[in-house]
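User: Sequence recovery, please. Input:
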């Protein structure tokens, strides 16, 4: 059995190992649900790793879009009127909580409550 695990570790891509570790980390926090299981138009609390940060102008004002990945799905947290948030950068882990808004096949949270994790 140990040989099978070793072969698996050596043959899987690094991205797959990283995804599995992220899923394991996200499933350990209580009260958080996986991104692929959030229901539209409900308040949800999710945890994940920041995969992207970009500034998008919306109606003449800046909006910071933060991509949050939990290994099972991606959620975009949108902060209106912000160009940056201290500590929010790709690779950091955070918890976001707010109303889930579906748009096509993407999931958004507008101005969610957030908590940066160490």
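Assistant: Recovered sequence (118 residues):
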């Amino acid at each position: 059995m140990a040989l099978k695990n070793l072969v698996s570790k050596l043959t899987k891509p690094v991205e797959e190992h990283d995804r599995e570790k992220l899923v394991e980390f996200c499933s350990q926090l209580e009260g958080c649900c996986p991104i692929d299981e959030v229901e539209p138009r409900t308040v949800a609390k999710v945890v994940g790793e920041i995969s992207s940060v970009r500034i998008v102008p919306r109606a003449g004002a800046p909006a910071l879009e933060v991509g949050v990945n939990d290994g099972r799905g991606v959620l975009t947290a949108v902060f209106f009127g912000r160009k940056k948030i201290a500590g929010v950068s790709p690779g950091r882990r955070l918890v976001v909580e707010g109303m889930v808004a579906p748009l096509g096949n993407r999931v958004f949270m507008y101005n969610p409550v957030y908590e940066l994790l160490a």
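DSSP finds two helices and six strands in the chain.
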